[in-house]
Every structure is written in C-alpha cells, then in structure tokens.
Amino acid sequence: MRRGSIAAPLILIAIGALFLIHEISPVFPIADMVGQYWPYLLILWGVLQVVEISVRALRGRALPVSGISAGGWFLVVLICFAGFATYEVRRPDNWWRRVGFEPGIEVFGQEHQYQINSVQKTVGNAPHIVIETFRGDAKITGNEGTDVVLNGHKIIRTMDPREAERADQKTPVDVVVQGNTVTIRCNQSAPDSKGTITTDLDLSVPKDASIEATGMAGDFDVSSISGDVDISSQNSGVRLTDIGGNVKVDTRRSDLVRCTNIRGAVDLRGHGSDVELEKIAGQVTINGDYDGTLSLRELARPVRVQDIRTEIDAEQVPGEIRLDRGSLNAQNLIGPVKVNAHATDITLDGFNNGLELTADKSDIELRPARLPLAKMMVHTRSGNIEVALPETATFALTASTDHGEIENEFGEALKQHAQGPGARLEGAIGTGPELTLTTDRGSITVRKSSGEEPEAKESDVANRGEQVRLEAISIRPR
Q1: Structural domains of the chain, count
Q2: Which residues face 121 on adjacent strands?
C-alpha cells in the first residue's frame, strides 16, 4: 500500500504552531512573519519531498508517478497567494494604495477641485491646535503673530459632477475656538456619497503653538513650532523641522518620517519605511517595525531603538547610526552601547564606554579606535568577528569559537590553542578592560588598527553634546 507524504502534515503543524504562539502572545507579529518568510514553507516542502523519494528509492520501493498530488498543488497555490497577499498588505508603499482603494475605489470617477474659504482667527500666543481625523496633506508653519490663518483646497472624486457639488457644500472646513484649544474639522464623513474627499490644508499658526493631528492618509509637514507636536496617522509621510517641544509620531504605515532640529524628545511608534533623525537635543525612542533605512545623526541624549529585528541603546550619537535591512553601520557612538540583532551584519566604528553586543547570524566588525578601551562583550551564534584595536591599547582578551579559526596580530602575549573543531585565544597586554569575543560558528580576527587614534576626552564628548543642544535651542523663539 502506498504511504502518504508527511510533508503536508508538517506544513500544517508549522502553520498551526505560528497561530498558537500568536494566541499565547498576541504581540507576536504573525502577519510580518508570514509576509516575510512564507517562501520557506515551499522550500521545506520541496526538501521533504526529495528526502521521501530518496528514501523510497534506497529501499527499493516504487516511486510515485508525480511528486505532488493535485491537492498538493492546490495547497502550494494557496500558500503562494496568501503569502504574497500578506506581504503586499504589510508594505507601506504598495501599488494598490497608490491607486487608492480606501475607503472608496478612487481609480474610478473624475477629480473635482474646490478652494477652501480662507479663515483667519485670533487665538493668542500659544494655542493648542487640534486637527481632527481627515484625509489629505497638512502643511503647518509657525508665524510671529497671534492668528491662525487657514487656506487650502479639496479634491472630490465622484462619477457625477453634481454629486461632487453636493459633497463640497456638505464638507466645509470649520475652525472652532474654545478657550486655548483651536479645533479644525474637515467634515469628510458628512456626505452620503460613494466618492472620496481629500482636503489639503495650509495652516499658519502662532510659533508657540502645540499641534495634535490625526490623519487617515496624507502627508504632514510641520515647521517653526516651539510647542509639542503629536501626529497619529494610518498612512502618511511626516516631515518636522525646527520644533522646540517634544515630538510624538505614531503611524500605521509611512514612507518617510524625518525630524530635523528638534529641541525636545522624539518618540516614534508604529510601522513604516524610512526614518531620518538629525540634530535632536532630547531623548530618542523608536519602537516599531520600520523596514526601510533608519538614519540617526547628531543625537545629544540617550537613544533607544527597538525594532522587530534589532535593538540599539546608546547614550549619545555625535556621529551616525544607519540601519538597513540586513546591515547596521554606526560611527562615533558614546556608550555604553548595547546591540541585540538578528540576521544583521554589524559594523561599529568609533565607540567608547563599553559595548554589549548579542547577535544571531551576523558578521561583526568592530573598530573602537579610542583610548583607553572599555569593556566589550560580543557574542554571535553564527558569523565572523573582526576587531581592530589600536597598537598601544591595553586589554585582557578571551576569544573563542566552537567551529572556526582565530587569527591574532598581537603576538605571543595572547596564547592560542585548539579546542576540537574550534579555537581559543587568551591573554593580556598591559592592564586593561576585559574583551570577550565569542562565536558559535565562525572565525575571529584580532588585528591592529592602521594607526593610533587620539584619546577621546570627556570634555570633547561634553562639547559635542552641548553644541547639538545649543543648535536646537537656537530655534526657540525669543
């Protein structure tokens, strides 16, 4: 009797295990896992089929006429469709969003443009501006006066021009002043229409104002505001420049979040693609899933990045951190620095005050290049480790690999011996901090850097942080 294949049951067990983990821990990103790793199911299935056929051939049993049955091919097509659909839905810049299917089918009908009646109201020196949930772009600029000035236009897409006229009349942009709070309502959900309404706002507000805005789809551009800025959006790009207060951005999808010259703290949450932060005087916290390029430059306070694949902690970043999918490059960090990464190659150039690095499937290259050295603890499950130390550095080293080789350029002061398929290097040069390098599978290289770098003085570190702080303070209105 012909035995059935175990491949399909194993695939079902794997899928069931994913959903069980999600039920036990709802924060487990099952949609991200399925969208990113679904091709591995097909690879696993193919490998199991090859193994089964090979075992049958070795035992002299009859081989199946076809490797996969009709039902199996149906399951393959179903996995491909579900995986590709999940991947497209999770992407922030997918084609169907650019075409526009939310909340209506924007590809049909005709666009009709209408100007928004200009509104100007006196609101005081430091109002709290609230923009209620709307679809469209918002440009907000600080001014020297005490007035809120609103301009803009609407784009209404409908099949019938008369329906567009009715929708325009039912969606006025209201500016409501209640004490210190100024509420801006676009009333886009008012008309009973199948068309879509996009309201683009151009706001001039007092420079001491604070901003709170919620969007469905559209970009936010805010500049020259000394108060706090809080933006929440389902799908938008966010660009903030010269902000004197704290910044909070929460996006479900975003093509770009850019913050430049921010005096307060920056808190980014949610999902998106690219992130660019530069000249931030306050603390930086990034907690979410950003699958593009993460670029952080000139950060004067502690920074914490907690991504689905990478976690980074540092006290200051006078240089730059650049995180792409599969790679992390950082220059000139003030620690202690902590990094926890998965499937990410890591290069750290110029860091001090200690390093704690844990990685999985990562090649690691370290160039501290500052004297005196600080304690380093580095471990990767699979990958090579290369450390370049100044020739005059003093340290105590312990390096080990379970499967691999060790190369040493510091001579006989460091003793090397084999341990099974791996190797171990131990010793000390002068009196210095402990450097621990461990890889389960990979090689380790300890080499001398090309030249001795000058010692990093604490006063220099303080001056760099103070310079960033003063540059940010300079945007504060007088």
Answers
A1: 1
A2: 148
Asked, for residue 66, whether it belongs to a domain, the answer is yes
Nearest to 36 by CA among 76, 88, 109: 88
0.85 cut: is pTM over it?
no
13 occurs within a structural domain? yes
pLDDT band at 115, cuts 50/70/90?
very high
Q: What's the rounded Cα separation, in Å, for the pair 248 and 250?
A: 7
**Does residue 208 form part of some domain?**
no
| Those residues with Cβ within 8 angstroms of residue 120's Cβ, 6 or more apart along the chain or in another chain | 147, 148, 149, 150
How confident is the model over 407-442, as pLDDT tens digits? 999 998 999 998 889 999 999 999 999 999 999 999
Which residue range forms the structural domain that includes residue 18?
A: 7-90
Total residues found in the chain within this entry: 478
pLDDT at 291 > cutoff 90: no
In a domain, 469, yes or no: no
At residue 100, φ and ψ (nearest 5 deg) are 100, 90
